[in-house]
Specification:
The chain is α+β, with helices and mostly antiparallel strands. The chain has a domain of about 90 residues: 3-Layer(aba) Sandwich (Leucine Aminopeptidase, subunit E, domain 1). Helices cover about 45% and strands about 15% of the residues. Strand 3, helix 3 and strand 4 form a beta-alpha-beta unit.
Length: about 130
């Protein structure tokens, strides 16, 4: 919270929640970004509980906001690959497929950056990108 400040927390609380697969937009407050797109990813439960579809919906929802707000550039973490346990290889394919499809049919965003917090996730995303 120290980086974003109490304003972001208050704005998130005012939204009243966000179901898995959907996204919401807030201001950036004390963050270096002017706005933040929030999404709630699914928890990996082995792959048979609709996790793949929900993760794809996270990306589609975030990209729909970026399109409507005409954001030229968006940075996205490797959604769900941390504490939610989504395998990086599967998450990378889903992320790159969803983003590629969106970019092929929309003007915004013009660029999507993926933020991978460890080497294994980066390598999984690089493999997915090469496919």
């Amino acid at each position: 919270m120290a980086r974003s400040g109490v304003g972001l927390l208050a704005e998130c609380r005012a939204i009243g929640g966000c179901p898995a697969g959907e996204a919401r937009l807030t201001g950036g407050h004390l963050l270096p970004a002017s706005q933040v797109i929030h999404t709630v990813s699914p928890v990996w439960r082995g792959g048979g509980a609709g996790e793949r579809e929900l993760l794809e919906a996270c990306y589609r929802s975030c990209l729909a906001i970026a399109q409507s707000e005409q954001f030229s550039r968006v940075a996205s973490p490797a959604i769900a690959t941390g504490i939610y346990g989504f395998p990086s290889e599967i998450a990378g394919r889903i992320a790159l497929t969803a983003v590629t499809r969106h970019l092929a049919g929309h003007d915004f965003p013009e660029q999507v950056l993926f933020i991978c917090f460890d080497l294994a996730t980066l390598q999984a995303y690089e493999v997915a990108l090469a496919q």
